[in-house]
Each structure stands twice: as structure tokens, then as C-alpha cells.
Write a structure and sequence with these properties.
Blueprint (H helix, E strand, L loop, with lengths): L1 E2 L5 H7 L11 E7 L13 H9 L12 E7 L3 E2 L13 E2 L1 E8 L3 E5 L14 E10 L2 E13 L13 E9 L4 E19 L1 E7 L2 E14 L2 E6 L9 E3 L2 H13 L9 E6 L13 H9 L3 E8 L10 E3 L14 E2 H4 L35 E7 L2 H9 L9 E7 L17 E2 L3 E6 L3 E6 L9 E6 L5 E7 L3 H37 L9 H22 L7 H38 L3 H29 L7
Parallel strand pairs: 2-3, 8-11, 21-23
Antiparallel strand pairs: 1-6, 1-22, 2-6, 3-10, 4-5, 7-11, 7-19, 8-9, 9-24, 10-11, 12-26, 13-14, 13-20, 14-15, 14-18, 16-17, 16-20, 17-18, 21-26, 24-25
Length: 623
């Protein structure tokens, strides 16, 4: 990802190291441009052509017969980054370009309908990023993180409502460069990224308003009545907006909100027990509730009224973008195939009558018996603090940040005049001014449903996905092995070396064999140190291990292993010489024991440090 306020395409391209441009035709680049760089999001321009030629410069001569595809889109902003070289100040959103390399066979798209035959209700272009965890090389649906992204409105930039396109470049032997062969607008695009280890964080800058109450009556997306008392056993009804009408003015006054405009969201849960409690409010508890199946809905309107319409609240029922069916989406290369070139201009399929449509999408937003907790968006200063504390990651991990822009009015004065270029490798992301959708694995699922989806349109919200490298578990396994192997090396050497001395001494003084076997026993204890640490590390091994945890486990294993190796060498050398000496001079025995004790504690030091390190490996990791 690169953010830059002013400059040229050459500035961006020259900032990347040569190692970054070693792609093969199997990988397809996805370019996300912010509005300030919209003139680069043009297949007829020079930026994409220059970038692709630099990207595939290592393989142009070897695969000149294979076309190169690319995806481009215009988004609203790039998210704040926390790696070295980040920008100073309170800026949390940037202009720039974000680039992702994905396997070409994992990208699917749908060609946009020609403008002249579009219906009045044109579906917005949607970009979907699907991050799937691999098990033995196969992606499993149960561990999927899908991010649906609304694109920027570019009607005043290039005359299009949204900008999402695909292009195909072919190798020109005369110029020895890639040249544009064909481009097409897309109405939908799905990019799948397979990874062995994915860790997610959901950040929602919300503040609770009122108490968690039971839903008494509702219909569709209309919430009409909730319990009058917070007691879960209470079914006495009251209008759904009654508490908000009292608590919101108080919240506005306490937070000194000048324009008195506050957006409200409803967290709907189907179970009486909840991961979220108002008394211990935190973003993590809200995220945990959503991870367990709760849905977050924007309160679009309501309040006031009289009679049967008194206190009704209208909730946003949308949880995903686009239609559920994917029969029109196809692999990217098929979109550009010759036999598909006329499909873009085919007549639109008429919509089915209402009685023939799938009514599963019309289920109620909140059903009687569910529980609702209302939230309000936080102030500007809290929003900045929340975004500035975004999770950081190790250099070998890939960080993906998606989210919703902060209030455009509140941050309109932050347009920066920076002229420096900031390049952040292994970092990808996008912000939408409207909303994103987030599908994630359902935590502790006991039913057939293995995933949960919600719409996220809270200003300043973030979905952070850390893609740890596939080799992360190797370091944990290496630490487990090091703990037992090195200590056994030390124990074996100490036992063998001291044992030779005991056998030699036993020829002259067989009555001292039992007394002088102490060095052998102390050497054997070194192996127990390694066994203890190795078992503790092995209990935390797994395919999904953060890189931080794996490195700490490696350090713990090396600490006890190498300390035990040193202690074993010392015990063996001292034990061999000591038992031989005591056979001739019994008064050397006490001195030998003292030396052995100080040699033994070297291994004990390593054990203590290893136990402390292993206890830190279970902490929440950010890399």
C-alpha cells in the first residue's frame, strides 16, 4: 500500500524495491485507487501499463503467450497504518493506492450491463474479498472471512456511478512490453485469498445507550415494543423508542455534541446470555457478541407518533450486498473470452414476481424473545483514539484493514499537504464512505450454521485481518523440539561422563559407588527440565498459531535447552573428576557436591526463564 498526496506514477513505481516485482502470470493484481488518483484508474492511461510491465518484468520472456489480467476499482480512502514510517498527526484516512496480488484462478467477476439497456434500479457495484483458511491445501467454508465493500461514488470524477473494471494485457513482441488488449466494466468482483492462519479483530466505536431489553413485538424490520424493565423475566411492554427519547438528549448533553446529530445502532441477540454487558463496556465485548451470532442494525428512523405507530423504530435489514445467487459470476478469464463478448449486451432478465421470489431474505430483523441493546456513535476525539490504536503486525505477516470512513464533515479539514511518499509493504486495505459487510466464522457453533454476517456502517469502524505466514507453527514446533533435544544432549553427556568416572572409581573402591552416583542423578534431572517445558509448549501447538506466539515458544525451548546443555557438560566434567578424586581423598566429596549444585542451577535458571516466556506466549498477540 502507498499513500501519497501529490506526485506522479513514476514516483509510486520507483518507490517499490525490485524484490516486490517478482510476480508470475498465475497471480493477478488488484488495484484500489482513492479519488485523488482516479486518473490512474484508466486502462487507456500509462500507470497500469507501466505497473504491470514492472510487475512481470521477470517473466515476460518466458510466458509471452499468456495474457495478464488486472482488476481496478476506486474506493473512498485508505486506512491508517501503524508500521514504521507512518504519517504523523491525527490523520486516520489517506489518499493513495493499495495493491493486492491474488491467484488468477481465485478471482471471479461479472460484466456490467451496458448503460443503454440498464434498468432504473441498477445494482451498485460490489467488491468482495474472501479470506479462507487452508487445511492440507484445501479451503474450507467453515473458516471464511468475507468483506463486502461499497465503492466510491465517481459520478463527478469520471461520469460513472462506481468504478470497477477488469483489463487484459497481452505481450507485444515488437516493443517487448505488455499492451492493453481488452477492458470491461464489472458490476461485481470476488477476490479469494487462501491462508493457513487468519486472525481477525472487529473495532466498533460505539457507546451504550439505555439498558439491554427483551423484544416484545416486531414485524419485518420494524421494532415496535420492548420490555419496560431490564429484568429478563419482564414482559410488560413499552414503545421501542421510549428509552432512546430520554437517554439520547442526555448523551448529547454529556458529550457536548454541537450539531445534536447522533446515529443509533441496535445490537440484536437471540439468547438471554450475552458476551456484552453495559457495566464492562468495551469494543472487544461487542465484537465477541457479533462473533457469537449477534447482528448490528442501523436505526434508520422512528420515535414519536401515536396510537399503534407510537415509538416504532425502523432497522436497516441489509446484511449483505448484492443478490444471494452467484450464477452470473464467472472466472475472470471467462469474462474476457471471445464467446462471452456479446453477453454484456444481452437483455436483462426480468425480475420474478413477488410470489416466486426467495422469501428467506425477508425474515424478521428482530423476533419476539430476542434482546436488543442500543448504541450511539462516539465523539470525534474518541474516534481518533480508537483508530490510532489499530493492531500492528510483524513484517512477515500481511495486514488487511477494511472499514468505514469517519464523519466526512468532522475530518474535512484534515486534507493534508504532505509531499512525502509512504510505502507500506505487506499492508492492504480500503475504507468505504457508506458501509461494508462482514462474514466471519461463528464462535462455538453447536448448530449447522457455521458463519455469521452483519453490516458495518459505524463511522470509524474497522475489520482487521492478520494473515500470519504459513511457517509460523514451525517455530513453535522447533521450540518444543529444542527443549527436549538439547536438555537430553546435556543429560546424556553428563550421565556418560560421570558414569565413566564412577565405573573407574568402583574398581578401587566399590563401597563408594552408591555414594558417588550423585552426579549421574543430577545429570538426569536436566532432562526432566526439558521434558516439562516441551510438554507445556506442545499443549499450545496448532495450525493456527500467531507468529508472536511461535517465536516466544521457540525462545522458551532454546532457553531451557541450551541452559540444560551447558549444565549437563559441567556436571559431566566435574562428576568424572570428582568421583575419581574422592576415591583417593574422601574429603573432596563435599566440595564436589557444592560444585555440582552450582552447575545444576544453570539448568534451573533456564527452566525458570522458559516457564516465564511460555506464560507470555498465551497473551493476546498483535503480530
Amino acid at each position: 500500500m502507498a499513500d501519497y498526496d501529490t506526485g506522479t506514477a513514476d514516483d509510486i513505481l520507483s518507490s517499490f524495491s525490485s524484490e516486490s516485482f517478482q510476480s508470475t502470470p498465475d497471480y493477478t493484481p488488484v488495484f484500489l485507487f482513492t479519488p485523488a488518483f482516479a486518473h490512474w484508474a484508466d486502462t487507456q492511461g500509462t500507470f497500469l501499463e507501466q505497473c504491470l510491465n514492472r510487475l512481470y518484468q521477470k517473466t515476460l520472456d518466458h510466458s509471452s503467450q499468456d495474457p495478464i489480467h488486472a482488476i481496478g476499482a476506486i474506493i473512498d480512502r485508505l486506512p491508517h497504518h501503524t508500521r514504521e514510517g507512518n504519517t504523523a498527526g491525527d490523520t486516520t484516512e489517506f489518499e493513495g493506492v493499495s495493491i493486492l496480488l491474488a491467484r488468477g484462478d481465485s478471482i471471479q467477476a461479472k460484466a456490467a450491463t451496458a448503460r443503454q439497456i440498464r434498468s432504473a434500479e441498477t445494482e451498485e457495484s460490489t467488491l468482495l474479498f474472501s479470506f479462507r483458511e487452508n487445511v492440507n491445501g484445501h479451503a474450507i467454508r467453515q473458516h471464511t472471512h468475507d468483506i463486502g465493500l461499497r465503492l466510491a461514488n465517481t459520478i463527478f470524477v469520471n461520469g460513472r456511478e462506481n468504478t470497477l473494471f477488469g483489463g487484459r494485457w497481452a505481450y507485444d513482441s515488437s516493443s517487448r512490453k505488455l499492451k492493453l488488449e481488452k477492458s470491461t466494466d464489472l458490476s461485481a468482483c470476488s477476490v479469494t485469498v487462501a491462508q493457513n492462519n487468519i486472525r481477525s479483530t472487529l473495532q466498533l466505536p460505539l457507546y451504550p445507550v439505555g439498558e439491554r431489553r427483551k423484544v416484545i413485538s416486531s414485524m419485518g424490520n420494524i421494532l415496535s415494543q420492548v420490555a419496560k424493565h431490564a429484568d429478563v423475566r419482564s414482559d410488560e411492554p413499552m414503545p421501542a423508542s421510549s428509552e432512546l427519547e430520554k437517554e439520547l438528549p442526555r448523551y448529547i448533553a454529556e458529550n457536548d455534541i454541537a450539531d445534536r446529530r447522533v446515529s443509533v445502532w441496535a445490537l440484536i441477540e437471540s439468547t438471554e446470555s450475552s458476551s456484552y454487558t453495559k457495566s464492562s463496556h468495551s469494543q472487544n465485548s461487542i465484537a465477541e457478541a457479533i462473533r457469537k451470532g449477534a447482528k448490528l442494525h442501523h436505526v434508520m428512523s422512528g420515535g414519536g407518533g401515536w396510537g399503534k405507530k407510537q415509538g416504532l423504530l425502523s432497522l436497516d435489514p441489509e446484511t449483505s450486498f448484492g443478490k444471494s445467487g452467484k450464477e452470473s459470476i464467472k472466472p475472470l478469464h471467462q469474462v474476457f473470452s471471445d464467446n462471452e463478448q456479446d453477453s454484456t449486451y444481452s437483455s436483462p432478465v426480468p425480475e420474478l414476481p413477488m410470489f416466486m421470489q426467495d422469501l428467506s431474505t425477508l425474515s424478521q430483523t428482530a423476533e419476539p424473545g430476542d434482546y436488543v441493546q442500543f448504541f450511539a456513535s462516539v465523539g470525534e476525539h474518541e474516534l481518533r483514539s480508537s483508530n490510532s490504536s489499530s493492531s500492528s503486525s510483524a513484517e512477515d505477516s500481511i495486514s488487511c484493514f477494511f472499514g468505514v470512513m469517519s464523519d466526512a464533515d468532522a475530518f474535512s479539514g484534515q486534507s493534508s499537504n504532505r509531499k512525502n511518499l509512504t510505502v507500506v509493504p505487506n499492508y492492504f486495505g480500503a475504507l468505504s464512505e457508506k458501509a461494508i459487510t462482514y462474514l466471519q466464522p461463528l464462535a462455538a457453533s453447536q448448530s449447522d450454521v457455521s458463519e455469521t454476517r452483519t453490516k458495518v456502517d459505524v463511522p470509524g469502524s474497522r475489520v482487521v485481518l492478520i494473515l500470519d505466514p504459513v511457517y509460523a507453527p514451525f517455530f513453535g514446533s522447533l521450540g518444543c523440539t529444542s527443549a527436549i533435544v538439547f536438555t537430553c544432549f546435556g543429560a546424556a553427556y553428563g550421565t556418560a561422563k560421570a558414569g565413566v568416572g564412577v565405573c573407574s572409581m568402583g574398581v578401587l573402591r566399590p563401597d563408594l559407588i552408591v555414594k558417588n552416583i550423585v552426579p549421574v542423578v543430577m545429570a538426569g534431572i536436566i532432562g526432566i527440565y526439558g521434558l516439562v517445558v516441551s510438554v507445556l509448549i506442545a499443549n499450545n501447538l496448532g495450525q493456527k498459531v500467531p507468529l508472536y506466539t511461535a517465536l516466544v515458544q521457540l525462545g522458551a525451548g532454546l532457553a531451557v535447552g541450551l541452559a540444560g546443555l551447558a549444565a549437563g557438560f559441567a556436571i559431566g566434567i566435574v562428576g568424572d573428576a570428582g568421583v575419581r578424586g574422592t576415591a583417593q581423598q574422601p574429603r573432596l566429596y563435599v566440595g564436589m557436591i557444592l560444585i555440582l549444585i552450582f552447575a545444576e542451577v544453570l539448568g534451573l535458571y533456564g527452566l525458570i526463564v522458559a516457564l516465564l516466556m511460555n506464560s507470555r506466549a498465551t497473551l493476546e498477540a498483535n503480530c
